Amino acid sequence: MRSLLFIPGDSPKKLDKGLASGADALLLDLEDSISPDNKAKAREIAAAFLRETATVKERPRLYVRVNSFATGLTDGDLDAIVPARPDGIMLPKAEGGSDVAHCDAKLTAREAIHGLAEGSLGIIAIATETAAALFQAGTYGGSSLRLQGLTWGAEDLSVELGAEANRDAEGRFLDPYRLARSLCIAGAAAAHVQPIDTVYIDFRNEAGFRAECEEARRDGFTGKMLIHPAQVAMANEVFTPRPEAIERARAVVAAFADNPSAGTIGISGVMYDRPHLERARQLLARAEAVKA
Predict the structure, then answer these.
(1) For residue 20, what pLDDT band results from cuts at 50, 70 and 90?
(2) Domain span including residue 116
(3) What whole-number distance in Å separates Cα of residue 290 and Cα of residue 223?
(4) What CATH number is given to the structural domain containing 209?
(5) What's residue 277's pLDDT?
(6) Closest C-alpha among 141, 84, 134, 143 to residue 110
(7) Looking at per-residue confidence, does 281 or 236 come out higher?
(8) What is the number of domains present in the chain?
């Protein structure tokens, strides 16, 4: 998933627009964008939207960001949305693999109640929204077969840290949030799930958004959460493997296939070793996923 677009769960109009946005996934939000008085309504609207779009051809993947365990609202959210069969849920303020395992158990029970195959719903966890979560970033591996991705957040973390800002005057993340970012990508790699970069809230700043997407791709993120439909096309572009990169990856794979006992291969004056081969395979797999 290259582009994961947040949509307030209480807005039918925005949900309908999201379907036409070109995003790979929609994140129907029951958490931060919904006022306390509107939580119940958002559940109803999100569930109705899921039921209406379940059979739509070529639709984006549909995830629901539920409220965190600490709010006491998670069970009510799951009771409302699991019967509507989303592709998965986003778990905010996750504090390690134990929270994912806890969420897995809740989903398993509800899948059984509503006649869904066990494991039908995936989980994407937001892994850095609390200070405690930072110390648990390496514990997600083996927590649940449902876990599909890890992402990170700076807004809630900055509140918990008591910070005045999370970005500098030039729009770059400050050190505590760069640490959270690094822990997220390392945690995702250790758990063998997709690393997804956080939101860029200055959605009218196209140059800044592109730069952040390209930096994320450079460092190993393969998708980005978005807050506005205007960001979708650029995210899809940046996180789609480029033709020249695909061509180079194919050349590396072909060269090692022709020389299976080689530890290193020289191509056009550049030396490639086995880690480069694995990186090439990963890139080609992402390219095939985009085509699919």
Answers:
(1) very high
(2) 3-239
(3) 11
(4) 3.20.20.60
(5) 86
(6) 84
(7) 236
(8) 2
